[in-house]
Amino acid sequence: MKDQEKKKFTIPHTYAIIFFIVILAMVATYLVPAGEYERELVNDKQVVIANSYTHIENSPVTPFGLFTAIPLGMQKGAQIIFYIFLVGGAFGIIRATGAIESGVNRLVTKMENHEKLLIPIIMIMFSILGFTTGMSEETIIFVPIGIAVARALGYDAIVGTAMVSTGAASGFIGGMMNPFTVGVAQGIAEIPLFSGFLFRSVVYVFVLSIAILYVTHYAKKVKADKRNSIIYDLEIIAKRDPNVGSEFAPFTKRHALALLTLFFGVGINMYGVFKWDWFLNELAASFIIVGFVAGLIGGLGINKTFDSFVEGMKMVAFGALIVGFARAILVVLESGVIIDSLIYYLASAISNLPATLNVLGMFVIQVIFNFFIPSGSGQAATTMPIMVPLADLLGIERQVAVLAFQYGDSISNSIIPTSAALMGYLAVAQIPYERWVKFIWKLIVIWLLVAAIALVVAVWVGVS
């Protein structure tokens, strides 16, 4: 009918996509010949032995086995799942103190008279939060502050949004201490947590510097002529409110002490990882201590501290449980004894290519997967069990496989419509998605090229 509105295509829920992949995995157990590689323990890591693949009797998974794979996946991913919950709870307490919001608000307010330094300092600050706490969706609450400041200084809402979002994204891409992506992926890859710190730091500096130059260049164009703004028509009708941070409480000594507790805790975690061989359990315990201390110092009291702890866990429930859901894919592939077969066929297809092309192939696969599984921890749980042994067979360091995942997962988050963080801050900023794409696409291309070059260099120098 003419009057009937056409149904718009909606992107399937992330869990629905993963469940569909679980179903495909079950179907594959009927189609792909079962097979196994022999493995040996090398430096405390289970490593695939090259040329040891053999076919065995098929063991297809039943439809009921498909559903039992979900609770089994939750069990197999329990350590990572609870780690994400506990760390999320700790950050929930810190957020509840208002220390982060008030601290950012105070810094932004003080920088109003220093236009040239404003963009770099704000982006550096949010990038630090990005590579230490994995800040993503949390950026949404800071977007109104950034926009208010940007407009007061003669810029537009895109500059205000970009200062916050691309700053955090740069740190997320760097990922040096990100517990939700690099931490999870390295745990699955059986390599030391947050190893490869120096190499990631160098790439992070390039990524952040390029982002700062990109946003600053656009800001200067808008400052010179408002008609250069991609959202010029929207800025004309937008209400200007120069009162920066009016919705946030003043920055107090309690806020300062809470932030100091967080930074001290992150420092202890870094030391613990590198000097005491800390792993997920120790890191989770440390974050819990930091959260509880910050809550009490921040004036939350016992009850509100634990209420905030629970709220923080609720906020990460989507990403935490998706790890177990994604692990169901691995359970089905293992039950059907075809995961080694898939590795064998992938390795056979690309074994004659140079290692640099192999790792770029891994990178492209991760970028594609990120559209469908934008959760970093969920994508790590889905892809790393295949990418790690594939890297072993191809003679690529596991650290490089983690880098391919990390960059493939993080860069496109700033442009794909399946990213909850992106759609959230665009909604708050009232920036149409297509306008944002017009602004950001060149930066995404540059970031992808930087990541590709970094991966080639990582192969050449043997980052481990």
From TrEMBL:
Pfam families to which the protein is assigned, alphabetical: DcuC
Membrane topology classification: Multi-pass membrane protein
Location of the protein in the cell: Cell membrane
Keywords in alphabetical order: Cell membrane, Membrane, Transmembrane, Transmembrane helix
Highest rank taxon of the organism: Bacteria
Regions crossing the membrane: 12-32, 80-97, 117-135, 141-164, 171-189, 201-219, 256-274, 280-303, 315-347, 353-373, 440-463
Cellular component, GO annotation: plasma membrane
PANTHER family, per database record: BASIC AMINO ACID ANTIPORTER YFCC-RELATED
Protein name per the record: Ion transporter superfamily protein YfcC
Organism the protein comes from: Sporosarcina limicola
